[in-house]
Amino acid sequence: MMLRICREDKRRIVDAANASGKSVTDFVIGAAMKLASTVESKDVGKKRSGLTYGPGVPRPDRAFRVSCETARNGGSKGYMFAGYQVVGRCSWGTIRELRKVCQKGREPAILQWLSVHAPTYLAVVPKRRHNRFAAGVLVGVELGLPMKNGVTVTV
């Protein structure tokens, strides 16, 4: 790995490495690994706990974010379409679970489920549009999912 840094930063790193009795390489690698461990310990818990991305619910991807940005700017499809898109990204087990949630109630029940299993999606959608977003999830669950080959499949 090669790094380009200014002379002042290089001097500071060399001085710190010398003061700690390590080579510059060992010093930089040690500092980088310590910081990497700190970042991983914060992220790993969220990813694996299911609180940020529930089982069967992937992270919001670029297409979803673009869909929300288009809706935010007055696009014709709106947040309902973004909600519909979420269903197409979920695993079959998650869709079955969502179907049960939809049978219990409408948008409020879906929003409650999303707040537990997919809060990162809700974070992208403005609060005042959550009901439209949940309505799109409901449509996706009730009507079926668009598959890659164009065939609509219901669960």
Tags for this model:
155 residues, two-stranded antiparallel sheet, 2 domains, disordered C terminus, mainly alpha, 8 helices, single chain
Kindly describe this structure.
- With 155 residues, the chain is an all-alpha fold.
- It folds into 2 domains: 7-49; 62-153, no CATH class.
- The protein has 8 helices and 2 strands; from the N terminus they run H-H-H-H-H-H-H-H-E-E.
- It has helices at 7-20, 24-49, 62-72, 78-89, 92-104, 107-117, 119-124, 130-143; strands at residues 145-146, 152-153.
- Strands 1-2 form a two-stranded antiparallel sheet.
- Strand 1 (145-146) and strand 2 form a beta hairpin.
- Helix 1 (7-20) crosses helix 2 (24-49).
- The longest helix is centred in the N-terminal third of the chain and has 26 residues, at 24-49.
- 21% of the residues are buried.
Contiguous low-pLDDT stretches (5 residues minimum) are 43-53, 146-155
What is the typical, i.e. mean, pLDDT? 78
Largest sheet, strands/sense/barrel: 2 strands, antiparallel
Number of domains: 2
Tally of contiguous helical segments: 8
Name the beta content range.
under 5%
How many beta strands in the DSSP annotation? 2
- Helicity level: 55-70%
* N- and C-termini, Cα separation: 49 Å
At a glance:
The chain has helices spanning about 5-20, 25-50, 60-70, 80-90, 90-105, 105-115, 120-125, 130-145; strands at about 145, 150-155. With about 160 residues, the chain is mainly α.
What secondary-structure arrangement, pairings included, does this model have?
Blueprint: H1 7-20, H2 24-49, H3 62-72, H4 78-89, H5 92-104, H6 107-117, H7 119-124, H8 130-143, E1 145-146, E2 152-153
